[in-house]
C-alpha cells in the first residue's frame, strides 16, 4: 500500500437531496473504491444532519470525521500501526531461555550462603547497587564508613565533592527524612556531615537498623528512573521515566514487557512528555541516549533472570550525563 493519503474536505453550502444528482459525497466513495490510497473525509458542516453525511458517508466504509484534527490524528495512528506491523518481529519467536552470566552472581547476593531471605525484604543500597553492578549497570565509586574520621578519609580518596547518605534497609526514602547530603566539599565538612546524618537518623527513625554512612562519588546528569515491577498478567514489567524526588508528581513514565528489542527501548525514551529534556534544553547538554538504552536492556535481562526473586527494582535517580549514566541510588525488594 502506498504511503500517501488524501483527505477530502466537504463544506456543503447546500444539502444534496436529489439522489439523481451525484454529489461530492458519492465522488469520495467512488474514489475510495478505485484507489489504493487511504481516503479520509472531513465533513465540516456545523449542522451534521445532511442526508449526504448521515445516509451516504456514515453508512459507507470510508472514514469520516467532523474535524480536520481528528482526521489527522487517525491518519497518524493508521500509519504508525502499519509501520509497526511491517517492522515488528516477535521476540517470542526465539526466546532466550538460558539465564545471563550475571544471574549466578546476583543469586548469591539475593540468597547469601544459599539461604533465601524473607519475602518483602529490602536489600540495602550497597547490596542493591552490587546487584546492578553484576549486570554491568554503572554505579558510583563509594564506600560505607562507620565513623567521622573514616568518612573524611573515604571522601578524600573518592575526591570531593561527594554525596553522603545513611545506609539502612529499614529507611526507603532517605531524602524525605533529611538523610542525604549532596556536595560535601572537604574533610571537615565530611566529619560534620557524618555526625549530623547519624543524629538525624536516630531521631527520625529510632527503630531503624543503621549500617553506617555511604560516601559516594557525586555524579551529575538528568534525573531519570528505571524500575521493575511484577504484573499479575504479564509478569516482570520494565518502567522508564523522568526521575528524582518529584516522580510521584510528574508521573512521566512508560512501560515495556520483556523481552523487547533495542528499538523498543529507544522508543521508550521518546514516549515521555518531557523527552525533550533528554535531548538537551536551555543550554543543558543532551543525555547519552545510547547509554540509557543499554541500561534498559540490562535491566530487562535482570528482570527476566530474577523474576522469581525480585518483586521490585527502583533505580532513582539514574543520572544521565552527556557521556554515560550512573545509578545514583537503588532499591531492590525481594519476592
What does it look like?
The chain has 335 residues and is of the alpha+beta class. It has 3 domains: 6-83; 141-217, Dna Ligase, domain 1 (2-Layer Sandwich); 222-334, ATP-grasp fold, B domain (D-amino Acid Aminotransferase, Chain A, domain 1, 2-Layer Sandwich). The chain has helices spanning 24-33, 51-57, 68-87, 102-110, 125-134, 148-158, 187-204, 247-250, 262-270, 289-305; strands at 6-10, 39-43, 64-65, 142-145, 162-167, 180-184, 212-217, 222-231, 235-242, 253-256, 310-321, 324-327, 330-334. Strands 8, 9, 10, 11, 12 and 13 form a 6-stranded antiparallel β-sheet that branches. Strand 2 (39-43), helix 2 and strand 3 form a beta-alpha-beta unit. The longest helix has 20 residues, at 68-87. It is elongated. The two termini are 49 Å apart. Mean pLDDT is 86; it is low at 1-21.
